[in-house]
Amino acid sequence: MKIFNSEIRVKILATLYGREFCEFSYLKEKLNLTDGNLEHHLKILEKVNYIEIIKIIHKGKLKSIIKITDKGKESFRNYINELLRLSKEGVIK
Amino acid sequence: MKIFNSEIRVKILATLYGREFCEFSYLKEKLNLTDGNLEHHLKILEKVNYIEIIKIIHKGKLKSIIKITDKGKESFRNYINELLRLSKEGVIK
Fold first, then answer.
1. pLDDT at B93
2. In three state form, how does the secondary structure of A31-61 look?
3. Quick count: other Cβ atoms within 10 Å of Cβ A56?
4. How far is CA A49 from CA A26, A72, B14, B43, in A?
5. Would an 8 Å CB–CB cutoff place A73 in contact with chain B?
6. For A58, phi and psi rounded to 5 degrees?
7. Does A14 touch chain B (CB under 8 A)?
8. How far apart are CA A62 and CA B71, in angstroms?
């Protein structure tokens, strides 16, 4: 499974990269995805240890919190920096 | 065909974005691709008018020059800027 061969997965990683944690519902709205579609891509990202999915109970409701791992952050940073280098636009730290 | 659902196509566009023109052989070496693989992705990018493929004869040899179009540049810029915005890393011009 090539992780970056999906615009949705790249955007999930981008969103998490700047925030560390996101609620499932935030990601879903931000990227305009269905529950099923987001779940599908999160499972793939979890499998390669780019994210962790943490279940919590908040005010009696079960919620999913998505956390990007160091491996996920490094991988996203390498991807975006390669694109920026190729396009001669510098890098992000 | 989702253009950005391919890491290779994104990298081809990134490389062209900073240069306007590239030789086929340059792209092939820079991105470490086979002739067939690069040709496959260039055809897809040509079909959506993101690039033009120009055949020239240079010192008696037929060469392919790849040019990114304004549409291709705009599309790549929008893609990378959306990723940078999502990850809170600013935009490229």
1. 53
2. CCCCHHHHHHHHHHHHHCCCEEEEEEEECCE
3. 10
4. 21, 7, 27, 34
5. no
6. -125, 120
7. yes
8. 45
Closest residue to A5, CB basis, from B6, B30, B89: B6
The interface predicted TM-score (ipTM) is 0.87
**A83·B88 Cβ contact <8 A:** no
Question: Cα–Cα–Cα angle for B46, B52, B53, nearest 5°?
Answer: 95
* Cα dihedral value A69, A72, A76, A81, nearest 10: 80
Q: Which of A7, A18, A30 sits opposite B88 (nearest CB)?
A: A18
Spatial separation of the C-alpha atoms in residues A21 and B27, rounded to whole Å: 37
The tens digit of pLDDT for each residue in A65-84 reads 999 999 999 999 999 999 99
Q: Determine the residue among A1, A2, A6, A7 to mutate to test chain B binding: the one whose Cβ has the most chain B Cβ atoms within 10 Å.
A: A7
**Is A91 a residue whose pLDDT tops 70?**
no
pTM for this prediction: 0.89
